[in-house]
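Hi F.,

I've been meaning to write this up properly since the lab meeting, where we talked about keeping a consistent format for the predictions we share between groups. The idea is simple: the sequence comes first, exactly as it goes in, then the structure tokens exactly as they come out, then a line or two of notes. No screenshots and no reformatting. I'm using this chain as the first example so we have something concrete to point to.
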Amino acid sequence: MTYREAVAREKRAAFRDWTYWGRPVPGFGDPRARLLIVGLAPAAHGGNRTGRMFTGDRSGDWLYRALHTAGFANRAVAVSKGDGLVLRDCYITAAVRCAPPGNRPAREEFAHGQPYLERELTILGDRLRVVIVLGRVAMESFLRAWRVTGRAIPSPKPDFCHGGRWTLPPITLLASYHPSQRNTQTGLLKEGMFNAVFREATRLLRSNRPT
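Output, unedited:
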């Protein structure tokens, strides 16, 4: 919390005219979504600035391009809460709700964020069909929340790998590397790899249309 508030006061030179959100960032999207995306935490000068998950940072650039290409978003760019972006059949959340120092949340921050993730899983309910986790840590947080809300975890427990796929009825869990600058600039995650995960989500949803 101290770091989040300090960032909002000190700002970054490029955004000195912005009024930073500077508070915990809620999930957002279609409340009747069948696709859930779980990230790690808001970026200091992204979600912490704009007040919306994955908005105003490089990771968001990758995510919203992929969502737009796959048909889950009406536009490929997210710059602010008032930019007209609408998600279709998709909801975005994160394991941690406040921007952490160095993008490395402490254990206490995960504990604070966990009840919100559990509540979102409850609200989305049985309509949920596909979950995409962005990174190993997001996957671990999702699985904890999934278990707490009364769902079964397969044995052995899913072990993160990019492109991984597991059945956790009534959902399919898909895994991707997080589109962080570290992963994209080093080539660990390429755009084709990232888009393939969303194509698979689309395929799964088309084969499991609601009645």
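Notes:
The radius of gyration is 16 Å.
Residues 107-124 form the longest helix (18 residues).

If this format works for you, I'll send the rest the same way.

G.
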